[in-house]
Amino acid sequence: MNEPDDVRLVGGDSRCAGTLELKHQGDWRPVRGRYSDWTLKEAAAACRDLDCGSAVSVEERKESSVRSVWRIRPDCVQSGSALRECAASGSSNSIMNLTCSDLLLQPNISGSSSVDRVSEAQQQGFHVLRGSTFTISCSVQPQYPGGSFHLTFTSSTSALNYTQPAVNHSAHFLFPAAEPAHQGSYRCVYHVYVFSHDFFSESRLISLTVAGKLTVYMQVWKMWK
């Protein structure tokens, strides 16, 4: 989805949080933030336009002086009309700050084994030898300090969840010996508490296949060495 050219959130640490601004009649202005005008239901329209999920919080910020703003008619937004179609010119010192659910960037997931290191580009099918050590790594671009990573594992027979704190925006989950029970799908989920709310973001899935035996592989490798 392309980002809209008439709605934006500015001044925050993410494109999905900040002061709501609207471009109407060729003029960018902040949106008036009176609580009587906005509930999470109306704010959800802005988050949806920005491809930022749903609305998490709406805050009214008082400025020291009155400025030109766009006033948004709540009934118009509730009818499904675009924000710019519901805007009227006005003046106010009340500005709206909005936080949407998709605040975080998507984390990365990659893996490597003690026998054969695998690059992220090859990870749609991540293969390891039975008995080898392998690591699933989770990382995210620096946005906020702290947080934690949850590594989720699902297979036809089980589902597990491993957790580590984020250190330098990453975590590494070590598995000492690959077994058939490790075959399945893995996903990194990053959790962090910011703006008085819990947020999470999920990576893509990678699939792990366990094949052969490490001892056999090492014997063949020694023969060719």
Q: Would you kindly provide a written description of the structure presented here, covering whatever features stand out?
A:
By secondary structure, the protein is mainly β. It has three helices and 14 strands. It has helices at about 40-50, 75-80, 215-225, and strands spanning about 5-15, 15-25, 25-30, 55-70, 85-100, 110-115, 125-130, 135-140, 150-155, 160-165, 170-175, 185-195, 195-200, 205-215. Strands 7, 9, 10, 12, 13 and 14 form a six-stranded mixed sheet that branches. Strands 1, 2, 3, 4 and 5 form a five-stranded antiparallel sheet that branches. A three-stranded antiparallel sheet has the order 6-8-11, with no helix packed on it.
